[in-house]
Design a protein that fits this description.
Layout lengths: L2 H9 L2 H22 L13 H21 L4 H4 L1 H18 L1 E3 L2 E6 L4 E2 L1 H20 L6 H18 L5 H8 L2 H6 L5 H19 L1 H17 L9 H24 L3 H11 L5 H9 L3 H12 L11 H4 L12 H32 L4 H25 L17 H19 L7
Antiparallel strand pairs: 1-2, 2-3
C-alpha cells in the first residue's frame, strides 16, 4: 500500500465507517429475510432481490474507493457542475423516464434502474454549501437568502410532478444548513406556522381558524404593556395573509392533491366521517401502515428469530423490502433489534454533527450539516411512517431499504464528507 493510502486510512473517521458497515449489513440480512422464499439455497443468487442488493453493496465499495481516492477539493471545485448535471437528469425524466408504481422517477439502463433524485440530493447539498461558502458572511442579506432557497426549490419542483413528494420534502430539509449559517429562525417559524394552519384548516375549517386568530390577537392587544408599541399594520397584513392561505387550503387539497394523497391525509388526520368510506381507505391506502404496525407488535421484546417472521413470510406488508424494511426488524428481532437500529442511526447522526462542527473549512462544515439534514429526515420520516405516526409518503430508510440508487446515493453522500474530514488536518483547514 502506498504512503498516500496509509495516510488516508489513518485519517478516516472509523466510527462512522463502522456504523455504516453495520447498518448496511443488518439491512441486507433483513432484505434477505423479507424476500427469501425457501426455494433458493444461496444468498448469492443474483437474480433474487437480496442477490441484487448484494451486487449493489459490492458496487458501493468500489464507489467508496473512488471517492476516497479523489483530491480533497474536487467536490468543492466541481459542485456547480455536479448540480447542473443532476438537474439535467431530473429534466430528462419527463422525456425518457420509466414509470414504476405510478411514479416516473427512473431511467431504465437495462441492467439497472437509476433514480436521479437520489443523486440530486447529494448534488444539492454540495451546491448549497458552495454557494454559502462563496457569499461568506453575507447570508443574512435577503438576496442571498433567496438564492439559497432557490437552490433547494429547483430540484424539488422537478421531482414533485413525477410524482415524488417524499424526495421534494428531503430537498427542503437542507434549510437547516441555512439556519446553521445564520439565516433568521423567523423563516422556520413561518414554515412551521404554515404547516400548522394547513393541518388545522383540514381538520376544523377556515371559520374556526379565523375565530381563533381573532381571539389570540384580541388577547394580545388587551394584555399588552403600555410601553410596548404594537406593529398594527404588520399584524393586520399577517392576519389577512393567514386567512387567505387558509381559504386556499381546501382548493389545493381537492384540486391539486391526487386522490391517494387525499386519502392518506384523511386517514392520518381522521378527516373522513363516513364509516364506510373510512373503512375503504383503511383497506387500501391504510393497509400498509396497519399491517406494518401489527407486524412490529408481533415481534415482542426478543422477536421471532431470523427467517421466523410469520407475517413477513405471509407477505402481509406489500413491498416490505423497500420502504417498510423496518417491520422485518421489528418482527424477527423484536424490541431489541429495533432499538439497536435506532441507536446506531442516532450515534451516526450525532457523530456527523461533531465532525461537521470541527471543520475549519466552511464548505466542509456546511456540506456536513447537509448530510445530517438529509439522513435525519429520511430516518425520522421512514420510521414514523412505519409505526403510523406520519402519513405514508414513500421515503426509504438509509443504508437499509432495497434499491441500488438509494444505496449509492446515501453512500456517496456520507463518504464525500468522510473524505473531506480526512483532509481536515492535512490541508490545514
Amino acid at each position: 500500500m502506498s504512503v498516500f493510502g496509509k495516510s488516508i486510512l489513518k485519517r478516516l473517521d472509523w466510527l462512522s465507517i463502522l456504523i455504516f458497515i453495520m447498518l448496511v449489513t443488518i439491512g441486507w440480512v433483513n432484505i434477505y429475510s423479507s424476500t427469501y422464499s425457501g426455494a433458493e439455497e444461496s444468498g448469492f443468487n443474483f437474480s433474487s432481490i437480496y442477490g441484487k442488493q448484494l451486487l449493489f453493496i459490492g458496487v458501493n465499495f468500489v464507489l467508496i474507493i473512488i471517492i476516497l481516492g479523489l483530491e480533497s477539493n474536487f467536490f468543492e471545485r466541481f459542485s456547480s457542475v455536479i448540480y447542473v448535471i443532476s438537474l439535467a437528469l431530473l429534466l430528462g425524466l419527463f422525456v425518457f423516464g420509466k414509470t414504476i408504481a405510478g411514479a416516473t422517477s427512473w431511467y431504465n439502463l437495462g441492467f439497472f434502474n437509476l433514480q436521479p433524485s437520489e443523486l440530486a440530493k447529494v448534488a444539492t447539498a454540495l451546491a448549497l454549501a458552495k454557494y454559502l461558502t462563496d457569499i461568506q458572511t453575507d447570508v443574512k442579506r435577503k438576496k442571498h437568502q433567496f438564492y439559497g432557497f432557490l437552490i433547494l426549490l429547483i430540484p424539488a419542483i422537478l421531482v414533485i410532478p413525477q410524482p415524488d413528494p417524499g424526495s421534494a420534502l428531503v430537498f427542503f430539509s437542507l434549510v437547516f444548513v441555512l439556519f446553521r449559517e445564520g439565516i433568521p429562525v423567523f423563516y422556520l417559524g413561518i414554515g412551521l406556522f404554515t404547516i400548522l394552519i394547513f393541518i388545522c384548516t383540514l381538520m376544523f375549517g377556515t371559520i374556526w381558524i379565523t375565530i381563533v386568530l381573532g381571539i389570540l390577537i384580541s388577547l394580545f392587544f388587551l394584555l399588552k404593556k403600555k410601553s410596548f408599541k404594537i406593529p398594527v399594520i404588520p399584524i393586520s397584513i399577517a392576519l389577512v395573509v393567514t386567512i387567505l392561505f387558509s381559504l386556499s387550503v381546501n382548493f389545493v387539497f381537492e384540486n391539486v392533491f391526487e386522490q391517494r394523497h387525499r386519502d392518506r391525509f384523511s386517514l392520518w388526520l381522521s378527516l373522513e366521517k363516513d364509516p364506510k368510506k373510512l373503512e375503504v381507505i383503511r383497506k387500501t391506502i391504510g393497509y400498509n401502515t396497519y399491517q406494518s404496525e401489527k407486524t412490529i407488535e408481533s415481534g415482542g421484546f426478543f422477536g421471532k428469530g431470523f427467517l421466523e417472521g410469520t407475517r413477513t413470510k405471509g407477505d402481509f406488508v406489500p413491498e416490505q423490502h423497500t420502504d417498510y424494511i423496518f417491520t422485518t426488524v421489528g418482527e424477527e428481532w423484536g424490541f431489541i433489534g429495533t432499538t439497536t437500529v435506532i441507536i446506531l442511526f442516532s450515534i451516526l447522526l450525532l457523530r456527523l454533527v461533531y465532525l461537521a462542527e470541527r471543520q475549519k473549512n466552511a464548505f466542509n462544515r456546511m456540506y456536513g450539516y447537509g448530510v445530517v439534514s438529509i439522513l435525519l429526515v429520511h430516518y425520522f420520516i421512514n420510521i414514523g411512517m412505519v409505526i403510523g405516526l406520519l402519513p405514508t409518503i414513500g421515503i426509504p430508510l438509509p443504508f437499509f431499504s432495497y434499491g441500488g440508487s438509494g444505496l449509492l446515493g446515501f453512500t456517496a453522500l456520507l463518504f464525500i464528507f468522510i473524505k473531506m474530514d480526512s483532509n481536515r488536518l492535512k490541508e490545514g483547514f
